[in-house]
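pinging the channel bc i need a second pair of eyes. not urgent but kinda urgent?? the chain im working w is below, pasted from the shared doc
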Amino acid sequence: MTPQNIHLIGAPVDSGKDRKGCIMGPDAYRTARLAETLRDLGHTVTDTGNLQPDMNDIPEDSHLVALPQTIGWTTALNRAAQTAASQSLPIFMGGDHALALGTVTGIAEHAARENRPLFVLWLDAHSDFHTPQSTTSGNLHGTPVAYFTGRPGFDAFPPVQHPVPTENICMIGLRSVDPAEHAALSVTNMSLADMRAIDEGGIRAPLTQFLDRVTAANGLLHVSLDVDFLDPDIAPGVGTTVPGGATLREAHLVMELLHDSARVTSLDLVELNPFLDDRGRTAQLMVDLTASLMGRRVFDRPTRAF
């Protein structure tokens, strides 16, 4: 990957679920020296600061957690994504995964103007394919994929102008999918690689098959990296821990393969909860993974003591 113009965009979204703490995520990435790390790799990096959600007069919903605030974040992030993608490779420093309601739809609008298809790599323990009607928790961080693929039921949200086709989505790392999501996913042609498939066949095959399709279509590729993609033994700073996640080497291999593909055009870093972290371990690991994505080689990694 040639040197990139990178915009770091703070998105302290903390409205997508009941458990709080992701509001501190952007500053944790700054403390872990994300900008400096990327500059050391030769990239031009601008930290644009933290966004704020738009104000609106949408009423609260008795079932859904913080609906007005999440919609405010969605509209603000949609605009920010469109602007940043036209100028740079944006990295959205979250914030919970509800931020993807805005980032992916904004990137999709940019892709449509470029007349190129958008592909999405979803690295997550969860499929986040609920609708506001199907979620039992009311947590909207479990709905972004349903929203940006155009599933019905998001009447309070802005209409999605350019839904991402499900065949353009690959999910890797799944290990906690609710029955309603499972039923809905079963009638799509999304590429799904749960942890059993990874245990049996490795993590390289599903990713390279997907990347080959992105390359063949000359597509833009948005990567959404959730902390809970990783095993909680190495990444404890997340409120949605699910045992049995990706190992350190599996995660770095994914990032290295993404770098080799030179297809990534935007990135989400989501669900980091510094309140639950252990001396910054998770924040630093997410920075190290981003460095691998942006060109750090295996022999260049620093030794760290925690």
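so The mean pLDDT is 96. and The longest helix spans residues 67-85. — does that match what u expected or am i reading it wrong
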